[in-house]
């Protein structure tokens, strides 16, 4: 890619090539393993961990460094135990549970120290992981199972009631399965031997991640091992830490489903970080974790930043905190950012933009770029973009608004079982249609100015199509007509707002309608 770039006339300020009308990343170029090299995401992640530990001064003690700490139970696992669990479990999955390459494993993950070991074991064997939100409804989970067609399901005794009766289910919290993590004590401790008896190609599918897609319908996004490898490498390349810390400590606030949390976990492993599991989004609970475990890195929704500004946090020691990563919705206002910087002068904010279909990250705004208000930053390494007039298909230049389309090594392979949706989203040249209306300025900063698709985003999460809320409202006999739109909100980015027409004679109130909708969730 570097050689191809040198032959183009790329503006060094904007990254725009006037000949091809393509925007190129202005970030430093990074190298990736040759695509033809057989390599699983597990092998790549552990090879980076190995190189990290051998270049640190604390190599001798690294095996006893905590990898995972469960904030609720206090249970922790060292890197030495973690590596051993991956190997032991991979052996058990093959020999005891007859799991093999190409199988799909549907997973309802608890917030447990077992899940990272399970994921890396499965990936090392070429098994496709399909993690789902354990809080999803029975109908949503059944739909996801129909999409992925798993040969095995991993759940807990608390979530099996949501699964259809005809699936082969392994209880993660059963004593029998728990022994699989430790029973094979004679396995070689060498990092490189994990999954060495299975050839996994980078083009092989690694994960099915559930997303509403660019049309709002539930879909299974196919990510390859190469997609995950590229994203891990890119995360490491944009590592913001230029400070000396005894041990990097970061937070995962919810169970490990969704592409961001999976990649976040793999990145943490590759860099030898300590991860704290805390299943909470409450501001003070998260800050208590920062206080207790000396966290220096945390991913949060934009509303969290505004809440920190407004709250009295003097009882917490936040001196260890260095970076907050914000994504999923537009960052807060100039005033909030200024107040945050005044209150927390040692904490930097990084802003991210991406979709599940892009491997989560397409653009990022670094701390030194935080004054580019309204922008989500510049394209990340190895990513290309173009801006297309949604009506004419014309390729547009800096300053002109159109649909954002992106291309790079992290772009999904498609939607499982939906060739039509795949063809509508990714063209033959690998360009992914984001459905977002955007523009690039003359300095290569990306601005998302509107959404072409109809999904309302609340606090960084895709919620529902307005038409679905409208149908739900119209199912109430007191309502004659309804229309739902998105409404801008300073804290949560967007909230759904409904216009409702009562049926003649009805006295239904706003509170009663809101209560009715809440009960349908």
TrEMBL record:
Q: Which residues form the AMP-binding enzyme C-terminal domain?
A: 468-520
Does the keyword section mention Ligase?
A: yes
Domain AMP-dependent synthetase/ligase residues, every copy: 60-415
Family matches, as InterPro entries: AMP-bd_C, AMP-bd_C_sf, AMP-dep_synth/lig_dom, ANL_N_sf
What GO molecular-function term can you cite, just one?
Answer: CoA-ligase activity
> Does Ligase count among this protein's keywords?
yes
Q: Which UniProt keywords apply?
A: Ligase
| Superkingdom of the source species | Eukaryota
What Gene3D superfamilies does this protein map onto? Answer: 3.30.300.30, N-terminal domain of ligase-like
Family of the protein in this entry? Belongs to the ATP-dependent AMP-binding enzyme family.
Protein's recorded name? AMP-dependent synthetase/ligase domain-containing protein
Lineage, highest ranks first: Eukaryota, Viridiplantae, Streptophyta, Embryophyta, Tracheophyta
């Amino acid at each position: 890619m570097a050689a191809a770039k040198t032959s183009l006339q790329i503006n060094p300020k904007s990254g725009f090539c006037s000949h091809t009308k393509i925007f190129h990343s202005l970030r430093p170029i990074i190298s990736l393993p040759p695509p033809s090299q057989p390599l699983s995401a597990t092998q790549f992640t552990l090879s980076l961990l190995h190189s990290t530990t051998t270049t640190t001064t604390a190599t001798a003690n690294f095996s006893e460094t905590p990898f995972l700490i469960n904030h609720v139970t206090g249970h922790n696992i060292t890197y030495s135990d973690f590596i051993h669990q991956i190997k032991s479990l991979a052996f058990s999955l093959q020999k005891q549970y007859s799991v093999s390459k190409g199988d799909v494993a549907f997973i309802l993950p608890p917030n447990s120290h077992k899940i990272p070991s399970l994921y890396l074991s499965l990936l090392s064997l070429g098994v496709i992981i399909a993690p789902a939100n354990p809080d999803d409804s029975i109908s949503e989970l059944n739909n996801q199972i129909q999409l992925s067609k798993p040969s095995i399901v991993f759940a807990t005794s608390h979530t099996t009631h949501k699964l259809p009766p005809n699936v082969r289910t392994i209880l993660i919290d059963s004593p029998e399965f728990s022994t699989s993590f430790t029973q094979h004590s004679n396995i070689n401790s060498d990092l490189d031997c994990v999954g060495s008896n299975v050839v996994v190609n980078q083009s092989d599918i690694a994960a099915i991640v559930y997303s509403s897609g660019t049309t709002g319908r539930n879909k299974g996004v196919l990510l390859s091992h190469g997609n995950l490898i590229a994203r891990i490498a890119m995360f490491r390349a944009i590592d913001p830490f230029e400070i000396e810390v005894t041990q990097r400590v970061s937070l995962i606030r919810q169970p490990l489903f969704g592409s961001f949390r999976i990649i976040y976990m793999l990145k943490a492993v590759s860099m030898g970080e300590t991860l704290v599991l805390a299943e909470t989004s409450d501001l003070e609970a998260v800050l208590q974790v920062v206080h207790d475990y000396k966290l220096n890195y945390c991913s949060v929704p934009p509303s969290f930043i505004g809440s920190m500004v407004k709250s009295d946090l003097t009882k917490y020691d936040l001196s260890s905190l260095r970076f907050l990563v914000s994504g999923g919705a537009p960052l807060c206002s100039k005033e909030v950012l200024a107040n945050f910087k005044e209150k927390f002068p040692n904490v930097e904010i990084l802003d991210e933009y991406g979709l599940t279909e892009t491997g989560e990250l397409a653009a990022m705004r670094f701390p030194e770029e935080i004054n580019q208000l309204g922008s989500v930053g510049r394209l990340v390494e190895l990513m290309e973009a173009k801006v297309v007039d949604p009506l004419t298909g014309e390729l547009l230049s800096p300053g002109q608004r159109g649909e954002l389309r992106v291309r790079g090594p992290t772009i999904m392979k498609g939607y499982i079982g939906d060739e039509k949706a795949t063809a509508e989203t990714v063209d033959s040249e690998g360009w992914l249609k984001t459905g977002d209306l955007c523009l690039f300025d003359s300095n290569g900063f990306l601005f998302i100015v509107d959404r072409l698709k109809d999904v309302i985003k609340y606090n960084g999460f895709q919620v529902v199509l307005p038409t679905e809320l409208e149908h739900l409202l119209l199912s109430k006999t007191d309502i004659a007509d309804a229309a739902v739109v998105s409404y801008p909100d300073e804290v949560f980015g967007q909230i759904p707002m409904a216009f409702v027409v009562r049926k003649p004679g009805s006295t239904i109130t706003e509170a009663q309608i809101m209560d009715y909708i809440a009960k349908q969730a």
